[in-house]
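Researcher: Go.
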Amino acid sequence: MNSGARAQKEDGHMHEMGITSGILASAVEAAQAEGATHINSVTVSIGDLTEIVEDALQFAWEALTPDTMAEGGVLIVVHVPPKSRCVQCGEEFEHDKWNMLCPKCDSFLVEPITGHELRIDSLDVD
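Model: Structure:
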């Protein structure tokens, strides 16, 4: 891989490093507030529309957790599929990121319900 392609690939996943850094910082803060000494796992929900790449998130976790209370802990990712509500008829439906047409009335006027999540759901600590 030439240096330009490598830089593009690295830049393309740099936001996962920042996101993971934020997840780790929040988890450590919460664990310390509870008097924990080790984070065994962090479970996060990530909406499929966020376009966060799980492999890059996991790579960042492995890179950031050594020498922290989360060293050896795992990052568990729960994927949340996109779901919207039709403004015209009220139908709620799951869809992919390209086809948000209401299956009941064929309207394009929809409001998102799920799919944009990025949240820490739980910590397992000692």
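Model: The beta strands are 39-47, 74-80, 83-86, 92-94, 110-114, 118-125.
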